């Protein structure tokens, strides 16, 4: 098994203060009642529009989600008298909501803001449309609550393909990564790769905040790839597209000879193409890694070398033309 | 599989030098060695991995050893933690 047992972790909650801090620029959030309720926790990645709850139907009110007040909610409240409006608002305030976001720069009555402050519930105002707020916020929350795991390996962007190199400690992953960087490819992370599952079927790998773009080369120590090679040599995140497992050449192990059958491995439930690469002195793993990435690109664009070769062979067998020279006549070309 | 739990004793925590002595010691054994801090698990033979933990004084770590010499590895590595890496 290439990766052994992977421990999946998932964030249970984030604070409202954190949500505000991370989204205040993108969503142009303005807190209406100061920092009250910033310590409250969001535990659900879904968002709720409290229209029906405001109208009085609170039976299925998913109050523990971020509540977004769009035009519907605000227009509904506006058509009520001030007294009814405050009553409707008070009715939903009895539920422990994490925070509220009012979109389209809509206003709430000062009384409402004060009522929410007393309950320690933050209200943020955004000038963006509801669809945009919901889109950005869903993406953010999806990411925050996504399952994560740590993989011991080197993660490099090779010709735009995210290649994750794994193998036992000391087999030379970092050295190959360094070699790839020297050839113009970009390092995402060495040794500790945090992999996050985004949506369905997408894995995104990144480094960690402490060791970003540092690597250890045995016999040399720690080096900072960004300082040595510059900004062109790094990137912060990349989709994981191929897993290359390095192992010592074993005489009795079987390796693929044609590439007709594609092996894959499951990482957090996502299938990733898996290449087992035996290494031995004199084998240029860097170039092979580049070729693996390029071959992946070819396949992505619809060309499978192993299949094409196989087709050609089948044609030769049926036409009985095997063993012929590739060129019929050399036409006085003595070069 | 052998599992142990240790606490960081020295004041400065698991900083660069203790991390180096830890991975050097771990490399002497054939067994795989993993460290878990709050559900975040790294390879204990990788210095970058160990430093990623940024384990401060008092933090609890779960150690996991698997391999032919896991018992010996566990004894030696737990002792290094117990001594606080020879630091105050």
Note down, in words, how this protein is organized.
The complex is a heterodimer of chains A (335) and B (88). Chain A has 335 residues and is α/β, with parallel strands linked by helices. Chain A contains ten helices and 17 strands. An eight-stranded mixed β-sheet of chain A has the order 14-11-10-8-9-15-17-16. In chain A, strands 2-7-6-5-4 form a five-stranded mixed β-sheet, with helices on both faces. Chain A has two domains: 11-144, HprK N-terminal domain-like (Udp-n-acetylmuramoylalanyl-d-glutamate--2,6- Diaminopimelate Ligase, Chain: A, domain 1, 3-Layer(aba) Sandwich), CATH 3.40.1390; 148-307, 3-Layer(aba) Sandwich (Rossmann fold), CATH 3.40.50. In chain A, helix 4 runs parallel beside helix 5. Chain A has helices at 16-23, 51-54, 71-78, 82-93, 110-118, 130-144, 173-182, 225-229, 285-300, 305-319, and strands at residues 14-15, 30-31, 41-42, 47-48, 66-69, 99-102, 122-125, 148-158, 161-166, 186-198, 202-206, 214-217, 221-224, 237-239, 242-248, 264-267, 270-279. Chain B is of the alpha+beta class and 88 residues long. Chain B contains three helices and four strands. Chain B is globular, with a radius of gyration of 11 Å. At the A-B interface, strand 10 and strand 12 of A face strand 3 and helix 2 of B.
